[in-house]
Amino acid sequence: MEGEGDIRQTLGKRGEDIACGMLRDMGHTILERNWRSGHLEIDIISFDPDGIHFVEVKTRRQSIQAPPQDNVDRAKQRRIAKAALGYLKTKNGLPYGNHECHFDIAAITFKGDEWTVEWFPQAYIPLYI
């Protein structure tokens, strides 16, 4: 029997799959999924002619709660920016260090088997880490 954590994990993975498909359709190359450095994680790292994108994916079932993107608060933004800096220092990230960095949010909301995707390019600009 699936617990609530399993259901959320399955829903989150499905949302990330949808976000990756949307990014590919927009011309992005997916570089990494669920990239981790210690306790820091970036859901999707992609690249397109505009630069490198660090994408936070927020997936929810439709409810009266706040929109998914509202859960990317300043603390979360700082953690993602710190992780992005860490990624750019790795062997895989070094080639992208001179490109423009974008911090985007993909908000996926499910209503039954249907979903909507809201794309927030350059949702925030980290001022400092």
Q: What is the name of the CATH topology?
A: Trna Endonuclease, Chain: A, domain 1
Number of domains: 1
Mean pLDDT: 90
What is the SS-derived class? Answer: alpha+beta
**Rg for CA atoms:** 15 Å
What portion of residues belong to β-strands?
35-45%
Shape call? globular
Major β-sheet strand ordering: 1-2-3-4-5
Number of strands: 5
What kind of sheet is the major sheet?
Answer: 5 strands, mixed
Low-confidence stretches: none
The CATH architecture assignment turns out to be 3-Layer(aba) Sandwich
Give the gist of this structure.
The protein has helices at 4-25, 74-88, and strands spanning 29-37, 40-48, 51-61, 101-111, 114-120.
Question: Topology, pairings included?
Answer:
Blueprint: H1 4-25, E1 29-37, E2 40-48, E3 51-61, H2 74-88, E4 101-111, E5 114-120
Parallel strand pairs: 3-4
Antiparallel strand pairs: 1-2, 2-3, 4-5
Q: How would you characterize this protein structure?
A:
With 129 residues, this protein is of the alpha+beta class. It has one domain (4-120): 3-Layer(aba) Sandwich (Trna Endonuclease, Chain: A, domain 1). The chain is 29% helix and 36% strand. The chain has two helices and five strands, in the order αβββαββ. The protein has a five-stranded mixed β-sheet with strand order 1-2-3-4-5. It starts with a helix and ends in a 9-residue tail after the last strand.
Tag the structure with descriptive keywords.
single chain, 129 residues, alpha+beta, Trna Endonuclease, Chain: A, domain 1, 5-stranded mixed beta sheet, 5 strands, 29% helix
